[in-house]
Amino acid sequence: MNQKDIGQFIYKCRKEKGLTQAQLAETLNVSDKSISRWENGKTMPDLSLYEPLCNALDIQISELLYGKKMNEKEKLIQGDQSAMEIFKTKSELLTFGILTELLILVGIIITITLTKLFAKTIFQTILIMVCGGFVWGFGIILRIKIKKAISFLEKDLL
């Protein structure tokens, strides 16, 4: 995915549709400066704009991401590759999910065990519990985000 190539492709498709930057910007509810930055390869559209942008330019998302028009065979090949990447990503997320569960466990161990072993004062008890709670909470937040990401990937595959 080359940002400059994608920008040139957006420019080319916009011109083919006979749209000005201002017209495309109005359709997408963004500024014409945003369109200019995309076309110059300085920035990329926000992910939430990919589908409306593709609809406005009458292209597919795979064509946008590869910065070129594709024939049906190329689209099929890219679709297969994308599906394999999604499966690979899901597998990596599941592995990472296991690691976050270990992080949660470590946080609980820090909170309970280290407090009993090392805390001599109330301040030390509170400090160890806060540290353990932070590790435990961070693990839970990561786990929730991973579950959402996996759910999003599964929804895309259906």
From TrEMBL:
Family annotation (SUPFAM superfamilies): lambda repressor-like DNA-binding domains
GO MF annotation list: DNA binding
Positions of transmembrane segments: 93-115, 121-142
Keywords recorded for this protein, A-Z: DNA-binding, Membrane, Transmembrane, Transmembrane helix
A Pfam family assignment: HTH_3
Domain HTH cro/C1-type: 10-64
CDD domains linked to this entry: HTH_XRE (cd00093)
Name of the molecule in the record: Helix-turn-helix transcriptional regulator
Species of origin: Faecalicoccus acidiformans
